[in-house]
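Encode chain A's predicted structure.
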Amino acid sequence: MFISEKSRTLGIHAEVQARYGRIAEELKLDISASCCSGSTCSSQLYATDISWLPDTATTLSLGSGDPISAAQLQPGETVVDLGAGGGIDCLLAGHLVGPDGHVIGIDMTPAMLAQAEENRKKAGLTNVEFRQGYIEHLPIESESADVVISNCVINLSPDKTAVFREAFRVLKPGGRLVVSDIVTHGQFTPEQRADMAAWACCISGAEDVQTYTAAIQAAGFTNVMVQAKDATHLDDTKLPPSEQEIHVFSALVTAVKPEGNND
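Encoded structure for chain A:
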């Protein structure tokens, strides 16, 4: 049966939103539902001190790496986080950019946004805000950000090309893209891509790393660099045999919007 691209996008968004909404709600019951990380791994992911963060922020740490340290954030910078989740990266960024800086976290899931806002209040940060929206259509002004970060989220998008175009749009010339994400060596089949549960669990939506970086370059970015990480946070034994043949791993991807760009 033919499924339109719009229906596919809506279906993926709905599956992802439902799963991460459940994760936010299950936090209240102290149930771990993360595919990527969680409180037991968060202290291992981040090179910076996270001991000051609310427990509810570290418990909802669903990332695959540490874009914060790689971003080398400076006081006064404006940062946009694609897929803020419970807000851990936004809070860390807010601490680093200081009172003259600004951090905007974008997420499509109301339950996650509510938890992120609660975590912001607990952390006492006034330079961080959260907005509901899709990372393919950012509710952000053009050329307003110094840095765009994301942590294990872009793999969940059904339109990664649109995500990178939007990241490029909102960055100032010279701005930096710093992403930790799940990528692959090899492509999933259409049948594997159709597994919505695996997509929402950061697996079947993962893109081949060469295709991933090509989309970043096509959006206009330069100096695209990839640093592969280990995949110990993923349990490959949970994959069907055909998918185990594809190397799924975490990578840190960085890029720069050229100076003097007039898009």
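Strands lie at 78-82, 102-107, 128-132, 145-151, 171-185, 207-208, 222-228, 247-256.
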